[in-house]
Amino acid sequence: MKKRLALIFIFFFVMNAFADKKKKIETVQELDEKSRLEFDYSFMEGVRNKITGNYQEALGWFDNCLKILPSSPVAKFEIAGILMTNEDFNGALQLAREAVAGNTENMWYKILLANILQKKSMIEEACNVYADIISKYPNREEFYLIEANLYASVEKWQKAIEVYNRYESQYGITEPVSIEKIKLYTKLEDSKGASGELLKLIRKFPDRNEYLSLLAELYFNYNQDKKGLQILDRLLKADPENGFVHFYLADYYRSKKQQKTADEHTKRALVSEQVESGYKIQYILKLILNPDTTLVSDAELDSYMELLMQNYSDDLAIRALHSDFLKKDNKLSEAKKELEYILSKDKSNYLIWEELLLLCNEISDTVCMKVKSIEAIKYFPEQPLPYALAGISFMMQKDFKAALPFLKKGVDLTDDKIPLKSQFYSYLADCYYNMDSVQQAFSMFDRVLEMNPDDILVLNNYAYYLSLRNENLSLAEKMSSKAVSMESDNSTYLDTYAWVLYKRGDYSQAKFYIKLAIEKTKEPSGVLYEHYGDILYRSGNKDEAMKMWKKAFELGTDHMDMLKQKVETGILPE
Description:
This protein is an all-alpha fold.
């Protein structure tokens, strides 16, 4: 019983909130007692079903209301709301118009109508509805902002400004609205209007120097340099260490290619205590990322970095920026130390871990890569990259068994990252192959090529492994040929193709491609010369083969015992 009483209370609350009281009186007058009770019951059932999400049931009850009283605005309003929810905007629009026509004083009917018009991209008509609402409810500031934003959304900049002017007439000058008007005047390329808005803010908030700075910037943007410089000079006289003003002046003089003056202002801004370090970092990054417009030299950038390090050596963001500078100057070991210092103070920034791991990989510091990858996994167990680099580091140390669990876990973390998943499968393939789990290795290669048939590294490696085992050489030739066609100057891919052809007995073509592989590299490896020797031997040129084997022996290969036997006997084993 208590539940039913509570439900009835909700029905009456909703009805009182949305119903048109005048029409409700008319309903009582127009309907007999039986019809009135039936109408009220249908309406309450419609509201109950709407609240519980049974929209089809609700529509049935509200339709029954219209059968009882076809002119009912509140029933039309309720149906229109449900139709809009179901994205039947045409039906909703017609009923919303009728609801408003039936009761021109109801704010909620008009809000629904405006929302439907907006959904149908009938923006100006929606704005007219909001203007009508505002005329009746001038103290509801949100409607001004909605109307202005709607005009702005269809690039009716001037009309949006007019709405904001009406807002200011009601509420006075406020910073958010003034800033929006400045943006709109800027879109209209009306410098007078934009500067007028800023002057209003300056007069209202005389202690807010940032408005003066914005006014100066506005003047600069409209080539009124004299006015802009006068304002900035005024600010510097009042506060010579105002770093923001120095930044403005630095940008101005850079735009005029007066680098020396720009450099002086930049340095004064960088040592200003009024500007937080984060803003200074962003400014330096802006200079780095836009070298064509800033014309800043590497020497100037280095001097700025030195200033920041002198003043903010404990700021980890500055230290991170310093590591980028060191990498730029190819001081990779020093950059690595900076990143390690940052992590010694704060281990919560994954991007620093990633940067360090990639740097360790770049400088081939296998020990660092292994130790730091495993440590990173402790703090970020759901990030796949540390698993990849941990696995690679073990593979580089020929510890394939230790690499395997890291690579397997990494695969599980890459469901939505197909390129990274294919890389893990490629690493797993190499790992399995070196553990003599050949079929598993080839299965991994197949998975990679299913995801990316043009993975050139897998095409090459897969073909090479097949050739070493004399398995499926036709497939090996097809894959290796594709890799060579994609990168015809790559000596590794040319060598693989030559070796596959050699295994297939096509010694003439093999000789052509192995010679090409040697020509395409500045420092041919012992493996290349050994392959060349083997191909020459099978081609019948045993003297030249011996020369190639000897050269390979001088350079060294992974299989020196077998190569030594060739050199000593002059015979290529079967």
